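job 3f2a | input accepted
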Amino acid sequence: MSKASKRLSPLGAVGIALGLVGAFVGHSASAQDVAITGVTVATGDGSEPVENGAVLVRGGRVVYAGPASGMPASGGATAIDGQGAWVTPGIVAAITTLGLLDVGGVGESNDSSARNSPFSAALDVAPAVNPNSQHILVHRAAGVTRAATTTSPSASIFAGQGAIIDLGADPDAVMRPRAFQMVALGEQGGRIAGGSRVAAHVLFRNALREAMKLGEDARIPGRSSARPETDFGDDVPVDPRLSGEYAERAGDVLLTRFDASALVPVVRGEQLLLVAVERASDIRSVLALKKEFPRLDMALVGASEGWLVAQDIAVAGVPVIADGLDDLPENFEELASTQSNIGRMVQAGVTVAINASAMENPRNLNQYAGNLVALGRVPGAAGLSWGQALAAITSVPARILGIDGRAGTLAQGAAGDLVVWDGDPLEVGSTPVKVFIDGVEQPLENHQSRLRDRYRDLDTNDLPKGYDW
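job 3f2a | predicted structure (469 res):
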């Protein structure tokens, strides 16, 4: 996971450090009934935008999104005249460290890796997510409403259990804890495991087999299909740990009891496994794991050389969270990098989302998506249509993460996560003017916007800016 993990690192500028002094103010507003008209609507399902559209949200859920002529009676909903603005689903950012750090260079505020931990797969980011992180505020203002957040592999090839979070201004950021497990099997995985990909694959297979045997011996139950789902279908039981009669193991080889038990849902196909890999041959090796462990529910992360094995990926039915616009290799596992990577995989029938960890800030996702639209107009290159590009940062990552139909789309019944933009959201100059999460309008102020406003007026008659609050 050379690049994916390398860029799961400090997200923001130095100025964000000052945001640590801000006090969190809970956003206690309830879901609003909102009817937005006079807008261009893009539902995020891959279709092209609809002009003269409308969106209706009731009780925190999308009721309608499409041509204004088809909108049902809005009866009592707050009416908003969009005046030519654009409305899209909220951006779903995968993969990120949002909520896990404030200042990357200050260890006390950075929970994005655990290089000295005795645990690996058992690591669970959910308790560490900070909804008051300035990174969350900044990215919410950029139209990101949901994100998959995780630590970076450091002491082990396993990063641990990532969470899906919402970026709402309230104290309950974690939407789904332990939503996925992450493992590095490329250059970085080989380096961590002992200096070779050979060691990484042996360690990985050993871990899965330990988990498989442990789950059987300890009688760890699988997820019950009868368990009632939460609002977002989060069929996530209490973290499976051993207790009572089966609490002890005869002996650990490479995994602690907690790490092995954390991998039980993975080996059973009950928890998504994200595999960070770049090189074409490494991708083939990962796909081959499906024969040995057929129940694995996998997705690839990175996949800079995915276009070389696109047919194999498509046949395997494994989705990809791919780096957006790599055109030059950063290391030996990316020698075949090309900006056409995503376009060629999509043409081959692969389900592809754009990888947020491959850019400095996840808030640039819409810019990368727009660049892929432009790339499609370059002779000989492979890009995406406008609808495909928007879907690659909304409904497709939601589908890969298991929240499809609930986030990343303006489909009927989906969460009322929507963004009102002042122009085409895939154009670099467009910005959000309103953001709703679960039907609640969100504040867009953050440390960066306050700095902008503070220094916008440079009248020399003003007091020194240190006193201008």
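job 3f2a | Confidence is low (pLDDT under 50) at residues 1-28, 224-230, 233-249.
job 3f2a | closed
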